[in-house]
Design goal:
flat; 16 strands; Alpha-Beta Plaits; 12 helices; about 50% helix; alpha+beta
């Protein structure tokens, strides 16, 4: 009996101890979970916000690039239509026209193929003018001077004497290219429905002072479309950064309403037409996504804690062991998620490719692996030629555009999945090619040279893209013993120095030599 009582006392004490340990573990678990939840929510919100801001910036940049791409084509097509219509009229000079009906027939023929061109005939005997503006009929009585004044607001025009009774002319209105380009951009805006909560629009400035109704909303997607809206300080979401927008050509705005952050807006100024191209994303959208991830995290914590509490009551020492193992698995899963977030720090923020920190780690790991089998390794150091002069000439913003374009060209030109490119620093990049011989590395180098020479880099102030070239240093060799990654970089850098000293826009090869 005493033994039974002692066993019961021991069992009760064991249960109490296990319960106490379980309670302590639950408290520790909840405290750690709370700290991890706060850190996770903060990191998630920063990541989601960064992704959304990049989204609206890319939308605006794509729209502005679309404008720059289509404007020359629209202008060229308009002038081509004008020349074709004028050629039809010039051919008619050889024929006899005795009445208005014949001349009207000529105008219809020229207009049938070129409906955007204004064509007008003037009967010098009756003082009567008639013709077509696009597909709209024009008729009036007046003097020859009135006929000439009709074409003064056109960007290109030409007049002829048709027989001894008629003057005939054709021209392109100055607003034609503007109207066509605006229709193109409206169609582009209509196509952006899949962007969801992203709102895009184009406003036309009446003045740069920001006073009164300083702009007019001219383009929105069709599902937001209503009457044209005058823009003033009261309803311009980007007005708080309007001065910065005018001064810098672009601006990010955090739009507040009654003390609450409502939207993030990115706007860019297209000066040739005084257009403000903007896109925005709801701050609520970012908060909802962050809260959804946080709620999933809390549910995961709650389910795990319930399982831990149940096992602490039912089981003895095994339950405690299972609890510890489950806790370790949970925190390992949480650490994995934070590792994924940490991996994002391996990306260079400006160019979108790997940064130097990632390059150092991966290059050293690659060399350690290849040294076991004397594997081949090639590296290419790349430098943008005369980049300081490029920056001084076109500005640092255009320099950033150039860096991003070069980085994406390097990334897309790599032949295999195991190859990788990284930004080494400034205007220097590095490409690492595991298991690649000298010949293979030189083939990649030549491919990169040709790719960069053929690049078309957009630029706001010039219709023609600035010409950019690169110089390369190539090294290759067998990794017989584990080396420091700096040895390979130094060998490629030495080759790069020779390329720059011997004229640039070329590649130079130096074999890698094992250090003793």
């Amino acid at each position: 009996m005493q033994l039974r009582k002692a066993w019961i006392r021991f069992f009760v004490c064991a249960l109490l101890i296990i319960g106490l340990l379980s309670g302590v573990m639950l408290i520790v678990f909840y405290n750690n979970s709370s700290r991890q939840e706060a850190a996770k929510i903060e990191a998630t919100e920063a990541f989601v916000r960064k992704q959304k801001l990049e989204l609206i910036e890319n939308v605006v940049n794509n729209m502005v690039a679309w404008i720059y791409m289509y404007k020359p084509a629209v202008e060229e097509n308009a002038l081509l239509d004008f020349e074709r219509a004028a050629s039809i009229l010039r051919v008619a000079l050889m024929e006899e026209f005795s009445n208005d009906g014949q001349v009207r027939g000529l105008i219809r023929i020229a207009n049938e193929y070129h409906k955007n061109i204004d064509i007008l005939a003037y009967n010098t005997q009756t003082g009567y003018a008639f013709g077509l503006s696009g597909e709209e009929a024009i008729e009036f009585s007046g003097t020859p001077r009135m006929f000439e004044e009709f074409f003064e607001d056109h960007s290109a025009s030409e007049t002829f004497e048709l027989g001894d009774r008629y003057l005939i002319g054709c021209g392109i209105k100055k607003t034609l290219v503007y109207d066509i380009l605006r229709n193109v951009m409206q169609n582009y805006a209509d196509s952006q429905i899949p962007l969801g909560d992203v709102e895009i629009q184009i406003d036309a400035l009446n003045n740069y002072s920001g006073q009164g109704d300083f702009a007019m909303r001219i383009i929105v997607p069709y599902f937001q479309r209503g009457e044209k809206t005058s823009i003033n300080a009261g309803n311009a979401d980007y007005y708080d950064t309007f001065d910065a927008l005018v001064a810098n050509g672009e601006a990010f705005t955090e739009f507040m309403h009654e003390g609450t952050l409502e939207r993030f807006i990115y706007a860019k100024l297209y000066r040739p037409y005084d257009w403000i191209v903007s896109a925005s994303i709801s701050a609520q959208d970012i908060r909802q996504l962050t809260n959804l991830l946080a709620e999933q995290f809390r549910e995961q914590v709650a389910r795990t804690s319930q399982a831990i509490a149940l096992m602490g009551i039912v089981f003895t020492g095994v339950a405690l062991l299972v609890f510890v193992l489950l806790g370790r698995l949970f925190f390992r899963h949480a650490d994995h998620e934070f590792k994924v977030m940490d991996d994002l720090s391996h990306i260079d923020a400006l160019t979108g490719i790997n940064n130097r920190r990632y390059m150092e780690e991966r290059l050293q790991n690659t060399m350690d692996f290849l040294s076991r089998s004397c594997g081949l390794l090639s590296a290419l150091m790349i430098d943008i030629d005369h980049f300081k002069l490029y920056n001084d000439t076109y500005g640092h913003q255009q320099g950033d555009v150039c860096l991003r374009a070069i980085a994406q060209a390097l990334k897309s030109a790599l032949p295999r999945e195991g190859d990788f490119a990284a930004r080494y620093g400034g205007e220097e990049f590095i490409v690492v090619l595991p298991n690649t011989s000298e010949d293979g590395a030189l083939v990649v180098a030549e491919k990169l040279l040709k790719c960069v020479r053929a690049m078309d880099i957009p630029h706001e102030k010039n219709s023609a893209a600035p010409y950019v070239t690169i110089s390369l240093g190539v090294t290759s060799g067998c990794v017989a013993h584990t080396q420091n990654w700096k040895d390979y970089v130094a060998s490629a850098d030495e080759a790069l120095y020779i390329s720059k000293q011997s004229g640039r826009n070329k590649s130079t090869f130096i074999p890698f030599k094992e250090s003793v």
